């Protein structure tokens, strides 16, 4: 009997092994790997940029503060604005002395108030479903005890040996998962000033630094998502990314659940990878491939002390941005930049809490939804917007206000954002509409209902040809609805037809 059971177990094991696909180190095969379903259902995530650059926490408005080392050592800077290039070197000399170095910030990055459990509770309250932490940015500093971080530098360059003296990634992973959040990690292929890369030993840099470092990170923490970056200087063949991804999908501890993005080689964005990425853009990604927009609450990803209240997007801006992106089939991954001590700035906490309050009422129209055949209902007018006028590199968050509640004369307005789930259609409207709301090319079946989320209030409606005309109920302050946007739910939607 025991022998029979053993033979059966061996047979079943062999069958399972044969059924598991082995991915070849080639994009054509790697791209066939199915994307775990949770990503397309999540819709809203949190990005975290945190590292030694959080110590100076300073950069001119309109620029990425986390690029501090690069701005310092190249004496050049770019972004939204006109810059001399001397801004960062001058500030470095003034605050830290002429003989100071960026590498001093590794020792000063102490994270003494870091409480990842508190972070996780805040992110959950915000309604986020996943989080991505910068395990290593372009400065090469690792937030986990990685031996490769000191390769060729001849000094320790990780958060366990200096500064915080703590495995920041490990504590983060435990905290996020304890709150039921998917825990992702950002990993930069590029290191601006690694000696091997700077000295022309790129193959050595890839083989003996990047690959073993990446494998160490994945083996230790088995992340749910990996956000690669810094790929733009070299092709995937030069980075040997296809080999690395084949290892990830075939052999790693995360092989059965991990999701990756599209930043694995120069020119590969929106062509290869698990999901596609955009950054400070407004057009999203064409087609039905999963995608994600990343941007900050202000403009910088790393915490920037130069940003004032007016530089931070309002909760209305961020929520309309979320509705806009989700209606077009994407996810919004909104960045926060903690201070060097590990505290999340209060204004960022407030914005996250406001987003969470809106989602607690209207999340049904966001989570698990799909793109409607007509994602957005436009008014009449020109849809030709130039949000990079004046030489701007990044499209700022007020783009969505200019397309909705603060329109540009002569330009079209996004009147409604649509999402769908089953036979239900959700119409997200940017501002309260008195009287009638007409939804173009929406037809319902007999027995349909129209309700206002959060008010549990049924609305009268009628079919007028191809359009659904809704009589909005009189607004009642007792409903206590979040004011950033309102959601009308239409059940038993029968027909989907594209509009112009």
| Gyration radius from CA atoms, angstroms | 25 Å
Q: What's the CATH class label of the largest domain?
A: Alpha Beta
Say which CATH homologous superfamily of the largest domain is assigned: Glycosidases
Proportion in helices: 25-40%
Number of strands: 19
Query: What is the general shape?
Result: globular
Which CATH architecture of the largest domain would you pick? Alpha-Beta Barrel
Main beta sheet, described?
Answer: 8 strands, parallel
Question: The CATH topology of the largest domain is what?
Answer: TIM Barrel
Query: What is the number of helical segments per DSSP (H or I, 4+ residues)?
Result: 15
Low-confidence stretches: 10-18
Gap between N and C termini, in Å? 70 Å
Structural class, by secondary structure, is alpha/beta
Output the strand order for the largest sheet.
5-4-3-2-1-8-7-6
- Mean pLDDT over the residues: 94
Domain Glycoside hydrolase family 29 N-terminal: 14-364
Protein name: alpha-L-fucosidase
Family: Belongs to the glycosyl hydrolase 29 family.
Domain Alpha-L-fucosidase C-terminal: 414-490
């Amino acid at each position: 009997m025991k022998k029979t059971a053993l033979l059966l177990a061996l047979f079943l094991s062999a069958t399972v092994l044969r059924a598991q696909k082995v991915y070849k180190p080639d994009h054509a095969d790697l791209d066939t790997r199915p994307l775990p379903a949770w990503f397309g259902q999540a819709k809203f995530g949190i990005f975290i940029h945190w590292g030694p650059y959080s110590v100076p926490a300073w950069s001119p408005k309109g620029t990425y503060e986390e690029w501090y080392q690069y701005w310092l050592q190249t004496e050049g800077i770019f972004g939204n604005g006109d810059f001399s290039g001397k801004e960062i070197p001058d500030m470095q000399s003034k605050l830290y002395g002429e003989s100071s170095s960026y590498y001093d910030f590794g020792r000063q990055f102490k994270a003494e108030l870091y409480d990842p459990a508190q972070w996780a509770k805040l992110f959950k309250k915000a309604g986020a479903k996943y989080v991505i932490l910068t395990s290593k940015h372009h400065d090469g500093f690792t937030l986990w005890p990685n031996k490769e971080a000191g390769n060729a530098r001849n000094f320790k360059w990780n958060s366990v040996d200096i500064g915080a003296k703590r495995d920041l990634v490990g504590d983060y992973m435990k905290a996020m998962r304890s709150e039921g959040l998917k825990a992702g990690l950002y990993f930069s292929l590029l290191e601006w000033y690694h000696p091997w890369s700077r000295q022309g030993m790129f193959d050595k840099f890839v083989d003996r630094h990047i690959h073993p470092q990446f494998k160490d990170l994945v083996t230790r923490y088995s992340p749910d998502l990996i956000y690669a970056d810094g790929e733009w200087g070299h092709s995937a063949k030069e980075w040997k990314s296809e080999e690395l991804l084949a290892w990830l999908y075939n052999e790693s501890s995360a092989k059965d659940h991990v999701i990756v993005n599209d930043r694995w080689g120069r020119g590969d964005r929106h062509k290869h990878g698990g999901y596609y990425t955009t950054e400070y853009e407004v057009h999203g990604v064409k087609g039905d491939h999963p995608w994600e927009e990343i941007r900050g609450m202000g403009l910088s990803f790393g915490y920037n002390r130069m940003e004032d209240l007016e530089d931070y997007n309002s909760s209305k801006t961020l929520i309309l941005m979320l509705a806009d992106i989700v209606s077009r089939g994407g996810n919004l991954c909104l960045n926060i930049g903690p201070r060097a001590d590990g505290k999340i700035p209060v204004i960022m906490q407030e914005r996250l809490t406001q987003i969470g309050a809106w989602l607690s009422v209207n999340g049904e129209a966001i989570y698990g939804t799909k793109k409607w055949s007509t994602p957005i209902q436009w008014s009449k007018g020109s849809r030709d917007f130039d949000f990079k006028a004046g030489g701007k590199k990044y499209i700022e968050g007020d783009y969505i206000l200019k397309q909705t509640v603060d329109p540009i004369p002569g330009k079209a307005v996004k009147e409604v954002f649509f999402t769908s789930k089953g036979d239900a259609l959700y119409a997200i409207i940017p501002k309260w509409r008195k009287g009638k709301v007409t939804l173009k090319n929406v037809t319902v079946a007999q027995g349909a209902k129209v309700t206002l989320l959060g008010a549990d209030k049924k609305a009268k409606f009628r079919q007028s040809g191809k359009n659904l005309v809704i009589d909005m109920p009189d607004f009642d302050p007792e409903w206590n609805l979040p004011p950033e946007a309102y959601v009308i739910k239409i059940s038993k939607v029968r027909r989907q037809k594209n509009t112009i």
